[in-house]
Amino acid sequence: MWVFGYGSLIWKVDFPYQDKLVGCITGYSRRFWQGSTDHRGVPGKGCVWGVAYRLPAGKEEEVKAYLDFREKGGYRTTTVNFYPKDPTTEPFKVLLYIGTCDNPNYLGPAPLEDIAEQIFNAAGPSGRNTEYLFELANSIRNLVPEDADEHLFSLEKLVKERLQGKQNFDCL
Fold first, then answer.
1. Which of 6, 25, 84, 141 makes an SS bond possible with 89, Cβ 3.0 to 4.6 Å?
2. pLDDT value, residue 154
3. How far apart are CA 30 and CA 37, in angstroms?
């Protein structure tokens, strides 16, 4: 069994896996439209880069149960095609955790400035939402330097501007 990570599963891999591959799924867009009451993507058009993890043989159900708990709060699972970055590797099916618009934590589309303000102010048991954003942006830059995830990188820029403004204000 393979699981696709496109958010914190890229940079916070706290489960066992046998192998991992960088690649993408199509028919989805990475968006910060999902709220989270316990931590800090929705269907659309385009391509979402991330990492597919092959779960250890004999431990698939145990790891999936852990991921079901970790990704609670509005995520459902579906199976999608994964396209490895390495063109010599054939596409294959992966399990995808996806936030859908019919869950109580779904925030929906909003102006980037509003989303950036939410990210700037949000924190929970897993940490600050700014950490999630910055770790994800850095991971995508390192894994797929040619990717121009406009939504992700625009939010990163806006949140960094807010942080800089707060630091300047704190110095007054």
1. 84
2. 96
3. 19
Q: Do 94 and 21 meet the contact criterion of CB atoms below 8 Å apart?
A: no
Phi-psi category of 74—alpha, beta or left, where left has phi over 0 and alpha has psi -120 to 50?
Answer: left
Q: How does DSSP assign 9-57, residue by residue? A: HHH---S--SEEEEEEEEEEE--S-B--SS---EEEEEEEEEEEEEPPT
Q: Would you state the structure tokens that stand for residue 154, as one six-digit string?
A: 């625009």
**pLDDT per residue as tens digits for the range 19-34:** 999 999 998 888 876 5
Q: Rounded to whole angstroms, how far apart are CA atoms 38 and 114?
A: 21
Token look-up 């800090």 returns 40
148 and 62 in contact (C-beta within 8 Å)?
A: no
Name the burial class of residue 90, with classes exposed (0-12), middle (13-18) and buried (19+) by CB atoms within 10 angstroms of its CB.
exposed
What is the predicted pLDDT for the residue at 124?
82
**Whether 156 is catalytic:** no
pLDDT of residue 67: 93
From the list 60, 61, 62, 71, the catalytic residue is 71
Name the residue with higher pLDDT: 109 or 116: 116
Q: Where are the alpha helices (DSSP H) in 8-59?
A: 8-11
Per-residue pLDDT tens over the stretch 51-90: 999 999 999 999 999 999 988 777 889 999 999 999 999 9
